[in-house]
Every structure is written in C-alpha cells, then in structure tokens.
Automatic annotation (TrEMBL), chain A:
Residue span(s) of domain ABC transmembrane type-1: 85-278
Spans through the membrane: 26-48, 89-108, 120-143, 155-178, 257-278
PANTHER family the UniProt entry points to: ABC TRANSPORTER PERMEASE PROTEIN MG189-RELATED, ABC TRANSPORTER PERMEASE PROTEIN MG189-RELATED-RELATED
Highest taxon in the source lineage: Bacteria
Entry's Gene Ontology BP terms: transmembrane transport
Membrane topology of the entry: Multi-pass membrane protein
Entry annotated with the keyword Transmembrane helix: yes
Protein name: Carbohydrate ABC transporter permease
Assigned GO CC terms: plasma membrane
Pfam family, one: BPD_transp_1
Length: 293, 280
C-alpha cells in the first residue's frame, strides 16, 4: 500500500534499493498521524462535548457515555441559532460574490489594459494592506453612527458588510493570474468582434477558475468567522452573526458548554465540507496566482 | 474601475486620515464637545504603563507565533509531499482547526489547559511532571494563548506551503538526484531557496496578523482586561478597551496611529531584507 509509483520505477532503473523509500514513507505516515491526532484533539473534544448530556458535561471522560443530540435540538429551538446562521450566510455570501466580481474585474483591468496612472492605482491598493483594521474601525464606527444606520434592517447589514466588499489582497491575486493569460487569446476574441466585457466574462474568467475557488473560500471563511468589526457594529440581537451570537451567548445564559459546542460544531460543518471538496482547486489556485514570485 | 477606486478612497484612505485627526482631539463618542489637544494623547501614551505592557506582549506573541507556525507548517507540508494515499484526508484534517470558530476554540482551550482537571495536566502528571496553571498564571498565559493562535493558523500555513512546494519544478530534484545529492542537501539548496517567496509572504502577513491579535485573547478571558494581571493584553485589545469600553476615542486613535507606524516600518524592513531574488 505504501509502495509508490516512483519506487516501482526505481527498482528497475535506479540502483537505489526500494526498501529505503518504503521505510521513509512509513515514517512520514507515522509523524503525520501523530501530528493529526494532536491537532485534532481539541477539535474532537468540541464535537464530543456537544454530544454529552448536561449531567455528563463535567465528568471528564473523552467519549460521551450516552451520546445525545439534546444540545443540538436545544440550540436550534431555544436560541437564535438559525437567525445567526442566516445572518452569517447572508453576510459571508454577499461579501464573497462582491469580492469575486470586483476583484477579478479590477485584477483583469490592471493586468490587461494600459492606462495612465495604472501602477499608482495598483500600489495604492496594495498599500492599504498595511493599514491595521483597528485604525479604520473607529472612523467607520463614527461614520455609521452619524448616519444612523445601525438599527434599521438594510442599514445594519450594510454596516457589517461594507468594509469587505472589495479586497486588496484579492485584487493582487487576480492580477497575478490574469497576467499569465496569453494576450493572443484576447486579441483573437477582439477581432471576432466580442465586447470587452464579453471577453472578460466568457473567456478570461472561466480560465481562472482555480484562482476564483481559492479566493472564494478564503473570503467566505474570513467573513464567516469575522469577529471584531461585527462585535462593535451590531447593536441589536436580531442582527448578530454566528461568532458574535455564540460569544455573547455565554454572558446571557451562563456557561452552557454543551450548547456552545453544538452551535460551533454546526458552524464548522459547511465550511469543512466545502474545503474537503475543493482543496485541489484551492491549492492549485494559490500555486497559479504567483506566490512562487 | 471607478467604483473600486472610490471604494478604496472612502473605506480605506479617508478613514486613515480621520484617525490621524481624531488622535489630536480629546474625542469622546458620547460627548458633544471635542476639544483639540494637539500631541497630548501621544505624550500620555509614553507614560502609560499598560500600553507599554501591551506593546511588549504583542512583540512576544509575534516572536513566538510567526516562527512556530512557519516551522511546523513547513514540516507538515513536506511530510504531506512524501505520501500519496490519503493525502487529501490528511490535508483536510490539518485544515480543521482553521475553520473552527474562535469562540469554540477558545473555550476548548480553557478546558484543555484548566489547572485542576484539564487533559493537558492529566497528561503531564502521567509523565511525572507537576501540573501547571497555564491560563491562570501571569507567566504562562501568554504562551498558552500563542499556542492557540498557532494551532488555528496551522491549516492555512500548510495549504500555503503545499502550494509553494508544488510550484517548484520536479526536474530540479531529478537533476540533483542524478548528481548524487542527499535528501538534506536538496532541501537546503533547492527547496528552501525556491520557497523563499512563500516564506516571505508568510512572515509578512503572519507578522501583520499577530500585531493585530485580538479575537483569541478576548475570548480566552471573557473580558477586555487581558488575562491574569494584564499578562495577555495586546495593543489591539487595548485599543478596543479604550475606544469601546471607556469611550476615549481620541486616545484610542493615537494608539492606532502608533500601531500603523509599527506595522509599516516592520513590513518594509522585512520586505527589504527577506526578499532574495531567485532566478530559475
């Protein structure tokens, strides 16, 4: 099982004995397994705790003696979990779509068009990465309070969403990737009479799918788990996102470990599934977007 | 092009200047009158012992966290590169902490490291090492908090290094093998130099994120006071406490300006000294 294709070839073509490779592979598996157990221990603890009954919470056995889904049903029926989940989905979803659209459009323009001030625009956008969020948060907060956005329905959501609508990092990633697309392809489409937006939308964009996949997952994850800005800007319980809801839940209901763990386990499942399905594209996306320098 | 440009001007650049201006006022969100005080907020900073402590702590987090997550991340990525079967499964397993909500992770951490009955202390007793107080001890709380951040960031680091490793052409390794290079030789002469851009990226973005450490610290303590005797207090947490706990917005803005200056200087220095051009 651990015999790789390489070592099969090396038995015939190279003098190196295949046994040495096998032993190395076994060692790699051993280290990875031990590492994975250590890494996953806290994660497993979260899921197992979510299956423990209230009585069992404080006896510290690893496995729940009588696993129960009571925490899950309680979290869904007796807290605002579904509202938080919906809010997080809305906020992370809208932000991701906006970032994908604007960042690829700006990245494409910066990569494939010549216009005066192009480099200045690019450097200005990149330099915003060095401005700490903390510095912007106070003026943002003063701004949204001044125009009384925080207590109305579209206004509150807009306040949570607006800082993330375009990401400078994403612009950088997309520009790197569009630069590697051959110009001939775009020229050919232009000669065929395609509109500029048509070229971008129907030719360039489908070719950068791996880059879009990695940008999408990291944008979605970042906003799904965002904490500082939502914590500050959300004033009413009905606008809370999953992280803010779960964090404040502690203070309001006493320390309800079981419920917190159930809520968190439910929050992990969708993102972990997405990663498991798209991990190849995500890694390929980062490779192709030019981190190799 | 116009919409993104306006966005960056209004949402990033304009607030930067607003923060600079606020830092010169005795600004308070709750009050009507905001008197101009010039450099008073900055001179107060110099005498503020808690700010000094937050600065030192933030530096410690960065010094512990950035190298730790890069070394561990690189080791895991290299090991993953050695295996074929189950590679995807292992990748997903190591990624799991990265998607765990920080609130839950912080709580599990409190449980794992709890002084009396936590699993980590049970393990230490089994190894005949006396139990430690971890998060409740002023001397150990910072390292325990840093461990949480490293644990959470590991998945992202691994993915980053896997991508970096995949970008190195395999012909280099084949050539080295033909020339009789050992495994460690090809690591130091091929892998590490060609991984330089990824490592620089990791150091720069990692440093920026550790300098802004907030969420893990606040969730491990349930307050904005920063752990036992302020031993885990960070600059970002202190900004939050000043601006949104005590409403001293002007003073908090002065701290953000200092933080910005620190990030700017460190990032530029790192980019200058870490970037070696590798041509291939």
């Amino acid at each position: 099982m651990t015999v790789t294709q390489n070592s099969e070839i090396s038995t015939t073509s190279l003098p190196k004995p295949p046994k040495r490779r096998d032993y190395k592979t076994v060692l790699a598996y051993l280290f990875l397994t031990v590492g994975a157990i250590v890494t996953l221990f806290p994660f497993a603890w979260m899921i197992l705790t979510s299956l423990k009954s209230f009585q069992e919470l404080f006896n510290l056995g690893f496995w729940p003696e009588s696993p129960t889904l009571a925490n899950y049903s309680q979290v869904i029926t007796q807290t605002k979990f579904l509202t938080w989940f919906g809010n997080s989905l809305l906020i992370a979803g809208v932000t991701t779509l906006s970032v994908l659209f604007f960042d690829s459009l700006v990245g494409y323009t910066l990569a494939k068009f010549e216009f005066p001030g192009k480099n200045i625009v690019f450097i200005l956008m990149l330099s915003t990465l060095m401005i700490p969020t903390e510095m912007l948060i106070i003026p943002w907060f003063v701004g949204v309070t001044d125009i009384h956005l925080l207590n109305s329905t579209p206004g509150a959501y807009f306040s949570i969403i607006f800082p993330g609508l375009i990401s400078a990092f994403g612009v950088f990633l997309m520009r790197q990737f569009f630069e590697s697309l051959p110009n001939d392809l775009i020229e050919a489409a232009r000669i065929d009479g395609m509109s500029e937006f048509g070229i971008f939308w129907r030719i360039a964009l489908p070719l950068v799918r791996p880059a879009l996949a990695s940008l999408a997952i990291f944008t979605f994850l970042g906003n799904w788990n965002a904490f500082l800005w939502p914590l500050i800007v959300i004033q009413k319980p009905e606008f809370r996102t999953l992280p803010v809801g779960t964090a404040l839940f502690n203070g309001e209901a006493g320390t309800q470990w079981g419920l917190i763990m159930a809520a968190s386990s439910l929050a992990v499942i969708p993102v972990l599934l997405v990663f498991a399905f798209f991990q190849k594209q995500i890694i390929e996306g980062i490779v192709l977007t030019g981190l190799k320098g | 092009m116009a919409i993104p440009l306006i966005f960056f001007l209004v949402v990033r650049f304009l607030p930067t200047f607003v923060a600079l201006r606020l830092s010169l006022y005795d600004w308070n969100i709750l009050k009507e009158v905001q008197p101009y005080v010039g450099g008073k907020n900055y001179s107060r900073l110099i005498q503020d012992g808690i700010f000094g402590k937050a600065l030192v702590n933030t530096a410690l987090y960065t010094i512990i966290g950035v190298p730790a997550q890069i070394v561990i991340g690189l080791i895991v990525a290299l090991l993953l590169g050695k295996i074929r079967a189950l590679q995807g499964v292992f990748r997903a397993l190591y990624f799991a902490p990265y998607v765990t909500p920080i609130v839950a992770a912080a709580w599990v951490w409190q449980w794992l490291f709890s002084p009396q009955f936590g699993p980590v202390n049970t393990f230490l007793i089994w190894l005949h090492i006396p139990p430690q107080s971890f998060l409740t001890s002023p001397s150990q709380a910072l390292a325990t908090t840093a461990a949480l951040v490293v644990w959470q960031n590991l998945g992202f680091q691994v993915v980053l290094f896997l991508a970096g490793l995949a970008a190195i052409p395999s012909t280099f390794y084949e050539a080295a093998e033909i020339d009789g290079a050992s495994g460690s030789q090809s690591f130091w002469k091929i892998t590490l130099p060609l991984l330089n851009p990824t490592i620089v990226f990791s150091v720069v973005t990692g440093t920026i994120s550790y300098l802004q450490l907030f969420t893990q610290v606040v969730n491990l303590n349930f307050t904005d006071q920063g752990g036992p005797l302020g031993s885990t207090m960070t600059v970002a947490l202190y900004i939050y406490q000043m601006a949104f706990g005590r409403f001293q917005t002007g003073y908090a803005s002065a701290i953000t300006v200092v933080l910005f200056a620190i990030i700017l200087v460190i990032t530029l220095l790192q980019l200058r000294f870490l970037t070696k051009r590798v041509n291939y």
